[in-house]
């Protein structure tokens, strides 16, 4: 297998993000399936989808659109567990529509609370379980590692909040085509940081490199970084911040000798850039990011376990 064929699906999928995001923006403007302003919302998912849930929850609540919590589907405190939270709507994010924890949660919620599912595979079992389905089949993927589905879901959700993402699309066009510098190919370790809605992006960036490169990555809310994790920073390692920079952080990282990245580009485009870096890091290590070690497209658990 050559470098070009390793991760061929991931390559095509991550590179198509600007165009696919434009479709998601148009779809979001044409549909009204999401909770009304003021409704109490829980957003759930697993893995990548959970991190997109985190970003949307932070953005919706910060925009003053209503209480919005995010949970890993396996650890969700939704209406069945806690009357006190009293959610009006539970939103599920799942590319495959077959993830066991998500299906179990929605099954338990049937008839109790309105559910909305954002999905890639519109033929999947979740279609019969959710009260409303937002299908993004054009964003679905063949690589096990998610790139454009996750970001397109977030683009849809942010657009529905009234966020203008035209700059994200423009910045992403450059991010997905730019060459990856040698120091990012060689780096030993990456820590990703974010604030508010970009914390979820930081966690997703870290997961991406763990999945596709089997690399050592960490991720934190940016203001948490100086409370311990900065001990990891050192020459040959990277600290990569998405979005707003906490005062003094740049200087603090500079003192460690680590490479500090905060480009000022749109955070979603920065995540697309991490996708590109991840693909190229996998390739130079002889890995195929379309088929990561120990990972399948969807985690379907044995019912007897
Ligand atoms: C969720 C997920 C992915 C992960 C892998 C396995 O899938 O955990 O985040 O990268 O592909 O499945 P889904 O519920 O969004 O289909």
SSE diagram, text form:
Blueprint: H1 8-15, H2 17-30, E1 41-45, H3 48-62, E2 68-72, E3 89-94, H4 100-109, E4 114-119, E5 132-135, H5 148-160, H6 166-175, H7 182-186, E6 189-194, H8 198-213, E7 217-221, E8 237-242, H9 249-254, E9 259-261, H10 267-284
Parallel strand pairs: 1-2, 1-3, 3-4, 4-5, 6-7, 6-8, 8-9
Helix pairs in contact: 1-10, 2-5, 2-6, 3-5, 3-8, 6-10, 8-10
The structure holds 1-O-phosphono-beta-D-fructopyranose.
Residues 46-49, 94-96, 99, 102, 144, 146, 211, 295, 297-299 line the site of 1-O-phosphono-beta-D-fructopyranose.
Reported for the largest beta sheet, the result is: 5 strands, parallel
Range of helix content: 25-40%
Q: What would you give as the CATH superfamily of the largest domain?
A: Glucose-6-phosphate isomerase like protein, domain 1
At the first level of CATH, the class of the largest domain is Alpha Beta
Shape: globular
Bound molecules: 1-O-phosphono-beta-D-fructopyranose
The largest beta-sheet arranges its strands as: 2-1-3-4-5
Instruction: Please tell me the total number of domains.
Output: 2
In terms of quaternary structure, what is this? single chain
Average pLDDT metric: 95
CATH 2nd-level architecture of the largest domain: 3-Layer(aba) Sandwich
Tell me the total number of β-strands.
Answer: 9
- The end-to-end span amounts to 37 Å
